[in-house]
Write a structure and sequence with these properties.
The complex is a heterotrimer of chains A (about 260), B (about 325) and C (about 300). Chain A is built from nine helices and ten strands. Chain A is α/β, with parallel strands linked by helices. Chain B is an alpha/beta fold and about 325 residues long. Chain C is mainly α and about 300 residues long. Chain C is elongated. The chains are: A alpha/beta (about 260), B alpha/beta (about 325), C mainly alpha (about 300). Chains in contact: A-B, A-C. Chains A and C meet through α2 and α3 of A and α8 and α9 of C.
């Protein structure tokens, strides 16, 4: 059975400027896709294509105008929002901004546990330490503050915060963009290892087509709020059908082929 | 002809724990017409080198070098005024985030016209001058591929999309017809189509006008499309430098090898979803720099000798500094 | 809270420890802190310290000069006032009144102001902006004047002056809190907290308050110095504490009539007020600089 099944999701964003009479609407969708547990879905598109908006819709930060999202057959809507934040967790783009500077990392990780589980303080502490070790940090890091970490470590904390509730799906908004190559490979390896161990479904947004091609099973290409093409990774990269997809793949290929060899 | 010759450049920075060597014996040589890549991760000191060349470092910091010359003239002993004049004439810099390096209060047209050097404008009467500046500006914009010059010249930086602004920065850099363009990670965070456009542009500028480009980045895919020569930097030390072809075929330093392995697009034979090879550990902070070869704690081939900074050795044009380089295994 | 010892030679202090270290290195601020603690001790242990009852009038001992004057004696260290009351005890009780009441008022104003500001900041729309604009316009009037206006409505007296000053102090807390809450709500970590399922109250208490500490401390010290001045001023103007209560401002008013004969009846209460203000300002200043880099140091 599909882990996530999205049918005809649409969203409308009105921005009204005070001085002009016209309203600028951004129409997203209709979007449909599905994928199974253990698979990775990549969302690719230019800057105003609505990728981050789609991520927010999936996680529940915005409500769609129409359409349904199913997880394991169960429909997600306003009534089971607590289920949702348990099972679909998000990693934000800027790992620095998404951590509260005034709290220790242990408190940051404890927040989701307090609101969503009934564990007592001792159990929470041991779960936090276990999760820190899972992402490659140490138990002592729970006493650190945000400014004491490097950006690779901050990315790991963001991942730990996503994992601590044992979710089924992780939505990551450009998780590797701000990282250096060596730290990036470590982060990619970590994500893939955790996906294998825990059977997670991963949806990630990225510009880096090399990484997309390497780790994703399915790809969605978006442009100006519409899905331009979607399907399996190797099908899209080898036989792109749409104009925009062809342009993207060709630019990426030309970069690879044209290397001064 | 050698344009920029840097030998044993050392930069000491004053932090709370004392003075540390942020740059430790950097060597770099840029020839005319060459596209030179400076590769290094964050914390390696790439931006510090750019600032040292341009002369934008705080005066408190100590800079020493055996040799730091531009076309034979010693940059360290020059007066500040003559250095500024030299930089204005011969070197241009393109920075990472174009919106941060442009004045938000002036239109793009005003900033571009400010950059035009005085000797380009040949007419003497001031009413003819502004017309000539306008036509020069339009010509520059067409050269970098911005077709809609009217919109571009009259808008403010925040109203134009990011890749057009980056092209505009290149136009500003070209305005003074420099001999060297230093591009500090210009394509960071861009999507693929705009990245290829910027890289093509820099390539064209290099080939047509024979301008050297110092491309500072850690995006190996972009670099391998442009550069012919590469210098690899780790934590303030140059670990390897040589022609890109040779480095890719056979890297001598373990760090270079690890860096080249980290981009999945380089290895065509990688099965999907397999782990990428990576070095353990993270880049040390300025407070905890290792003694000797700074890759020591992370290097899989490190041994006791690595607490002494290795000397530079060379094989033809390929320079490296490592006690146990990769090509010694074969013997 | 154990700090890790990953790097033996480096110690990562928590923000609280770092603030204390930065504050300690500022010697003037430490001197101010000593003064402040001294006044705090006087406020708390006042009945044990005062040698006489402040309201006891000894008719035979009118206007005795303080101990360092050749005519004064050791019994009355600071001398006596025009009604024969021991000045030292009056000043000690006066410090308690002025300082203690000001502390109480600042706490009350802070609680009310922060809650109103938080409500205003976290709600959207007409309600919050109405509150904001009204309170901002009240802030344009000096607090003393606002207090006098409120006393004109309620009538003079110590309790009424306390209400007046507390009400006059609230707007600045509301304004600052609302600004800060608005600013924080747009940050990504608040979005993350919302995703974790936190309610509005939880978000405020656990995610926003730790970042508000600096602003609150700065505002509280400012408000404290303002309230001390206002209480004494109202006492001096006979609108606040009335005679025969031993409030410092009221003492100053009484001393004016005998100023030429007995300058110590003005100088000593005035000096006590002066020391209080200096100590609060020094501590506030020191805290402000120490807190500035609380979360940014490396």
């Amino acid at each position: 059975m599909d882990l996530i099944n999205v049918e005809d999701l649409t969203f409308q964003n009105h921005t009204k400027s005070m001085w002009s009479k016209s309203k600028m609407t951004f129409n997203l969708g209709p979007i449909s896709f599905n994928f199974k547990a253990g698979e990775t879905l990549a969302i690719v598109g230019n800057n105003s294509s609505g990728k981050s908006l789609l991520a927010k819709l999936l996680v529940g930060l915005e409500t769609p105008k129409s359409g349904k999202i199913y997880m394991n057959g169960l429909e997600l809507n306003k009534s089971n929002i607590s289920n949702r934040c348990h099972d679909i967790r998000m990693i934000f783009q800027d790992s620095n901004e998404s951590l509260n500077p005034g709290l220790t990392l242990g408190s940051i990780l404890e927040e989701p546990l307090r609101h969503n589980t009934k564990l007592n303080a001792q159990q929470r502490k041991s779960l936090i330490e276990h999760t820190l070790r899972q992402v490659g940090l140490m138990a002592e890091h729970q006493f650190f503050y945000r400014h004491m970490l490097s950006d690779g470590q901050r990315q790991r904390i963001a991942l730990a915060r996503a994992l601590i509730l044992n979710p089924k799906v992780i939505v990551a908004d450009e998780p590797f963009a701000a990282l250096d190559p060596s730290v990036r490979s470590q982060a990619v390896n970590l994500l893939m290892k955790l996906q294998r161990d825990l059977g997670l479904g991963v949806i990630f947004i990225s510009h880096n087509l090399g990484i997309v091609r390497h780790i994703s099973d399915k790809v969605i290409i978006m442009r100006d709020g519409k899905v331009v093409e979607s399907g399996k990774t190797d099908v899209i990269f080898n036989w792109p059908k749409d104009e925009y997809t062809k342009k993207l793949v060709e630019s990426h290929q030309s970069l690879i082929n044209r290397q001064i060899n | 002809m050698i344009l920029l010759d840097i030998k044993n450049l050392t930069l000491e920075i004053d932090i709370s724990a004392g003075w540390v060597k942020a740059l430790d014996k950097i060597n770099m040589v840029i020839h005319e017409g060459q596209i030179h890549a400076l590769v290094g991760e964050s914390g390696s000191g790439k931006s510090l080198i750019v600032k040292a060349i341009v002369g934008a470092l705080p005066h408190r910091w100590r800079i020493t070098a055996d040799r730091m010359t531009w076309k034979g003239q010693n940059l360290l002993t020059m007066s500040a005024k003559s250095r500024r004049r030299l930089i204005r004439k011969d070197i241009s810099v393109i920075f990472q985030n174009p919106l941060e390096s442009l004045d938000p209060l002036l239109t793009l047209g005003q900033q571009l016209k400010e950059m035009l050097p005085r000797d380009k404008v040949s007419k003497t009467w001031f009413w003819q001058r502004s017309d000539e500046k306008q036509s020069l500006a339009i010509k520059l914009l067409h050269r970098v591929g911005i077709k809609n010059h009217q919109l571009c010249l009259t808008s403010y930086p925040h109203q134009i999309s990011n890749d057009v602004v980056q092209k505009f920065m290149i136009a500003m850099a070209l305005a003074s017809e420099p001999k060297l363009i230093i591009a500090d990670d210009p394509t960071r965070g861009m999507e693929v189509t705009s990245k290829t456009q910027i890289l093509n542009l820099l390539n064209k500028v290099n080939q047509v006008k024979s301008m050297s480009v110092l491309f500072v980045s850690h995006d190996l895919l972009a670099i391998s499309n442009m550069a012919s020569y590469m210098t690899v930097l780790y934590c303030g030390q140059t670990v390897e430098s040589g022609e890109l072809k040779q480095l890719r075929k056979r890297a001598f330093h373990p760090y270079t090898q690890a860096l080249l392995n980290s981009a999945p697009s380089f290895r065509k034979d990688l099965p999907p979803k397999s782990p990428l090879s990576s070095l353990d550990g993270t880049i040390p902070t300025l407070h905890h720099l290792p003694i000797g070869c700074r890759l020591g704690p992370r290097c899989p081939r490190a041994r006791r000798d690595c607490v002494v900074t290795p000397q530079i050795r060379r094989v033809h044009t390929h320079f490296y500094s490592c006690h146990f380089p990769l090509h010694w295994d074969v013997k | 809270m154990s700090q890790s010892n990953l790097y033996q030679e480096e110690h990562h202090p928590s923000p609280l420890q770092y603030t204390w270290m930065a504050f300690k290195s500022n010697h003037i601020a430490i001197a101010g802190l000593f003064c402040f603690t001294f006044f705090l001790v006087i406020t708390i242990f006042c009945p044990l310290l005062a040698p006489f009852d402040p309201n006891m009038q000894q008719v035979g001992d009118l206007l005795i000069p303080p101990a360092w004057d050749p005519n004064g004696g050791i019994t009355h260290l600071f001398g006596t006032d025009a009604l024969g009351r021991d000045l030292l005890s009056r000043i000690i009780y006066g410090c308690r009144m002025t300082f203690g009441i000001s502390l109480l008022l600042v706490l009350v104003a802070m609680l009310l102001g922060v809650s109103l500001g938080a409500l205003a900041g976290m709600s959207k729309g007409f309600r919050s902006s109405f509150l904001n604009h009204t309170l901002d316009s009240i802030q344009a009037i000096p607090t003393l004047l606002t207090a006098i206006i409120i006393i004109a409505i309620l009538g003079p007296g110590l309790v009424n002056s306390m209400w007046a000053i507390a009400l006059a102090l609230i707007p600045q807390f509301v304004h600052q809190t609302r600004d800060l809450v608005r600013h924080e709500l747009s940050k990504e970590y608040i979005m993350a907290a919302k995703l974790d399922g936190a309610s509005q109250l939880h978000i405020f208490v656990r995610s926003i308050l730790p970042n508000m500490v600096e602003m609150l401390v700065v505002q509280a010290t400012l408000a404290l110095s303002v309230s001390i001045l206002d209480i004494s001023a109202l006492g001096f103007l006979k609108l606040g504490a009335q005679a025969p209560s031993s409030e410092l401002g009221a003492m100053l008013l009484e001393g004016i009539e005998v100023a030429y004969m007995a300058p110590w009846t003005i100088a000593l209460p005035g000096g006590a007020l002066f020391m209080m203000m200096i100590s609060i300002n020094l501590v506030g200043d020191g805290l402000r600089s120490a807190l500035r880099n609380r979360l940014l140091h490396s």
